[in-house]
Amino acid sequence: MQYNSRPVMSNQPGPHQDLSRRVSRALTHPLRKPVAEHTQQTFTLAAEWLKARHSPLILDSGCGVGVSTRQLAAQFPNHAVIGIDRSEDRLARKHGELPSNALLIRADLVDFWRLAHQAGWAPERHYLLYPNPYPKAGHLKMRWHGHAVFPTLLALGGCLELRSNWSIYVEEFALAVAQVTGRQASVSEITPEGNYLTPFEAKYAQSGQSLWCLRAELERT
């Protein structure tokens, strides 16, 4: 299959000038909106599944059609891998049998992360693979590092890996990680060379776009 995906277009020339203020606001005004009932129910089921496995946890947040969850479960057979996405349609698409150490669930990540933190979850690894970049400058608060849930996401700890085809998103995320935790994330350009974790990764790479990876080793707090 031939891809011709266009790179991210934005009216931002660099990191958003309001980023630091948004992160500070998230730190001083914790998110207090009620958790949706459907996510509470889904989390309860996921917690029971995880408890039965007695395995280190990997979260695949925003897993889309679940290709990455399957790949990660195969790569880490001694871990329990939970893929979370808000779209029932995406999760229902057929991409092969789900490994026994993997679970796909429909949930709102904002609520799921808060429930996971409250329950004491401490993922060994946490993946955010090609999140929606919301590239317009006015949409900063819709990016994960501009959202009020960002401190909770980092508080889960573990090796956090973010991948994106927009370098500014990754640069902003690294700045936000440093502001919240004092830790410097590593950022590098990657070339998967056919070993694609997600359909988006395949599409972007085969369209000749640069792909960026951020890794941060975080303490659970």
Q: Could you give the topology of this structure?
A:
Layout: H1 19-28, H2 37-51, E1 57-61, H3 67-75, E2 80-85, H4 88-91, E3 102-106, H5 109-118, E4 125-129, H6 150-155, E5 158-164, H7 167-181, E6 186-190, H8 199-206, E7 211-218
Helix pairs in contact: 1-7
Structural summary, described in words:
With 221 residues, the protein is α/β, with parallel strands linked by helices. It is 35% helix and 19% strand. It contains 8 helices and 7 strands, in the order ααβαβαβαβαβαβαβ. Helix 3 links the parallel strand 1 (57-61) and strand 2 (80-85). The longest helix is centred in the N-terminal third of the chain and has 15 residues, at 37-51. The protein is globular and about 45 Å long. The model has no long low-confidence stretch (mean pLDDT 96).
Number of alpha- plus pi-helical segments: 8
Structural class: alpha/beta
Q: What proportion of the residues form beta strands (DSSP E)?
A: 15-25%
Helix-strand sequence: HHEHEHEHEHEHEHE
| Alpha-carbon distance between the two ends | 44 Å
Spatial ordering of strands, largest sheet: 3-2-1-4-5-7-6
What is the average per-residue confidence, as pLDDT, rounded to a whole number? 96
Apparent shape: globular
> How many distinct beta strands?
7
User: What about the largest sheet?
Assistant: 7 strands, mixed
Radius of gyration from CA coordinates: 17 Å
Which spans of ≥5 residues are poorly predicted at pLDDT below 50?
none
